[in-house]
Write a structure and sequence with these properties.
This protein is 55% helix and 0% strand. The protein has 154 residues and is mainly α. Helix 5 crosses helix 8, helix 6 crosses helix 7 and helix 7 packs across helix 8.
Amino acid sequence: MKRSTTSLTVLAVLLYLGGIPAFAQHSRGGPPSGSHGPGTSGPSTSTDTHGKSSPSEILEHNTALTKKLQDLGVANPATDCQAFKNLGQCVAAAHVAHNLGGTCTFSSLKGAMTGSPSETLGQAIHGCDPHVDAKAEAKKGKKQADNDLKETGS
């Protein structure tokens, strides 16, 4: 009995920790970290899904981040973030929508960033309000998302 409990605990920890590398601060084949082009799209996290947890799987276990997204106006974080390439993009879009106070909604940013063709966060911001400094707002949202992901252990 004790052995099976220990095995399950070890398995749960390994599954949880297995998703953390998906949020490393570099992307394979892309620009170096911090070298985002115009209209940055948020944290430059890996989109490799081999053995990585999806945004909805991470949010199911990370109640602190789920609550933070709900506080930012994301109604159902596990469902709404699933469409994004990675969790960092979703959190950054939520922050931008909150920061702009209704000028750009989370739904409009999500639609632009996950549609076909997909847009960067900066392009999505410019699309909903061309008078906003899209590059600065994208950078601010990315920084806030990075902080949230670090604080909540995602």
